[in-house]
TrEMBL record:
Protein name in the entry: NAD-dependent epimerase/dehydratase family protein
Gene Ontology biological process terms from the UniProt entry: L-threonine catabolic process
Span of domain NAD-dependent epimerase/dehydratase: 2-240
Family from the record: Belongs to the NAD(P)-dependent epimerase/dehydratase family.
Organism from which the protein derives: Arachidicoccus ginsenosidivorans
Length: 310
């Protein structure tokens, strides 16, 4: 039985739906600090859970016979820069609670997302490899990079089968994004459909690694399904799909909405974006567990414009 922590979030909600589709609604207990989101309501059991409360989390695991945890609760990059110590405390305490309980209860498997935000200005800008110079300059990136080392520690020392993916920016329409820097690529669709124009908080030529939610969910399930012997790292796997700039996604939208216009007013998030790679080398994921993206910019744009409710 699976526990999803952070089921109210952008990825947690869709992961909950995908896991319920795969294993059956009753097999997936969704949890979040906030009340049950409309996206998952009625598709299976839900409980509120503050991921900082280890006792409460442990109680839920024992009461429900949980054997796997997907931990999707975190403070993202932009919000994290506004409240650094709060972000560090939440991101690390919640992860250590999950790892400790996985050790004590001998859970079968744990999933925890890292991010391309672990990379900093000293990392290679293009085709950034999985193993390279990693000097994060955002609190979010610092917490994700530290978390990767903790995951490896619990695997090496206690045999906890925890697996992780460094997600790029994830684009989706089913749930609101959670305060990230890449979220301009979601906002742009809502704005284009609502007003026909968008003011981007990133400069026009800011390339960032991105991925459509369908690809991110499928990658997560494929990683978690892979035989343990195929998993060559319990830190985290680089994952890439598409790299584009605000200028490029605007041009793609214009193919569908010729009247669409964009302007640029970079804010504090520009510095965050500039510290990250423009594209990712995900050859390890392709080699170890057969990763292959399906959505390119054109296919994603068409799907977003078809489904976004402005
Ligand atoms: C953020 N969407 O912007 C997240 C992600 C790579 C970016 O980690 O913070």
């Amino acid at each position: 039985k699976i526990l999803v922590i952070g089921a109210g979030g952008q990825i947690g909600g869709e992961l909950t739906l995908a896991l319920r589709k795969k294993f059956g609604g009753a097999q997936v207990l969704a949890s979040d600090l906030r009340e049950e989101s409309p996206l998952i309501k009625g598709t299976g059991p839900f409980t509120t859970l503050d991921a900082l409360n280890k006792e409460a989390m442990h109680q839920i695991v024992k009461e429900h016979g949980i054997t796997q945890i997907y931990h999707l609760a975190a403070v993202l990059s932009a919000v994290g820069e506004k409240q650094p110590l709060m972000a560090w405390n939440i991101n690390m305490t919640a992860l250590l609670n999950v790892l400790e309980i996985a050790k004590e209860e001998h859970l079968k498997r744990v999933y925890w997302p890292s991010s391309i935000a672990v990379f900093g200005p000293s990392s290679p800008k293009d085709n950034c490899p999985q193993q390279t110079i990693v000097e994060p300059t955002t609190v979010y990136g610092i917490s994700k990079y530290a978390g990767e080392s903790w995951c490896n520690y619990y695997f090496e020392k206690y045999g906890v089968d925890v697996r992780s993916i460094r997600y790029p920016g994830i684009i989706s329409y089913k749930a609101a994004p959670g305060g990230g820097t890449t979220d301009y690529a979601i906002d742009i669709f809502h704005s284009a459909l609502k007003t026909g124009t968008y003011t981007s908080f990133l400069k026009q030529d800011t390339y960032l690694p991105m991925m459509y939610m369908e690809d991110a969910i499928r990658a997560t399930l494929e990683l978690m399904d892979a035989p343990l012997e195929n998993i060559k790292t319990h830190r985290s796997y680089n994952l890439g799909a598409i790299s584009f700039s605000p200028n490029e996604i605007a041009a793609e939208i214009k193919k569908h909405l010729p009247e669409f216009t964009i302007e640029y007013q970079p804010d504090f998030r520009q510095a965050i974006a500039d510290s990250w790679p423009a594209s990712i080398d995900d050859s390890e994921a392709r080699k170890d567990w057969g990763w292959e993206p399906e959505f390119d910019l054109a296919k994603m744009t068409a799907d977003m414009l078809k489904n976004v409710k402005p």
